[in-house]
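Q&A log
Question type: sequence-to-structure
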Amino acid sequence: MKDISIAIVNWNTKELLDQCLDSIYRTAGDLRLEIIVVDNASEDGSPDLLAEKHPDVILVRNKVNMGFAAGVNIAFKHSTAPYFLLLNTDTIVLEGALQGMLWFMETHAEAGIVGCKLLNCDGTLQRSCSRFPSPMTELFDALYLSKLFRRSKLFGCYSMSWWDFDDVREVDFAGGSCLMVRRQAIQEVGLMDEGYFMYAEEADWCYRMWQRGWSVYYYPGAQIIHLGGQSAAKFGSDVLLHLYISRHRFVRKHYGRISAAALRAVIGLSALLRWTAYSIAGLVRRSDQSLADRAQFHRKLLRWTVCDRVECRPRSPVGIP
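Response status: OK
Response body:
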């Protein structure tokens, strides 16, 4: 019997995967671990690395990039331990993190999911918990109220910027870069929703956990380093478009069509204002390519908000329109 099944979904992050696995083995101690890597058709030699250096890892090779949620679900079907840990390749596990999360789950029977404290490379805090997205949270962001009043529990509610992340508490959802999930809870709630291409799948999972009576916790006693967005960075600005698309899907699924329409309107207003501002600034500072890039992104985002046809959505590397 294993203590923890660790699921890692990989897509062309060979060096990061190697670093992540090294950190797991270095800090595992007496834990009985089962590591499952689902490789989404990598072309950088990631499977060869596992065969040569980490033969104990269970490797599942997908012929195409099936996305994060599908990869997690495949890993779960190969797992056996009572606790299932989602771990990104761009993470470095610190001493005591795995033991701390396991202890927390074993001492909190009501917990379906627990997230840990995420740190940047320099040791500074990386915010890892949020409220569920809604038209209100998007409006606060569109009007910059979330940035102007970061310490406000109202305007800073989505990213919980008013909180120092130093105490244990129940949260709406924790980021999917490192999540420990109880097998019993997954069996009751179901697997991840594969309809999300990227982003919001963990929010959806946590929302469904709450609906079925399971709690979602943040536990700062376990800490990992999260480098952040290494696979996503390969797709450029289209990835950020998927962030808004996923939020819209979440709101429509759980709050209904009216709330989803309101969210789309707020996103559209925000995109219009920013497109206009960056376009004007770009005319003044023609040598600043970043302004032109930002204007182009918000133009794409505005186009999506007013056009729900497939051709108006960003290209998906896994073939999902």
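Response note: The CA atoms of residues 50 and 57 lie 7 Å apart.
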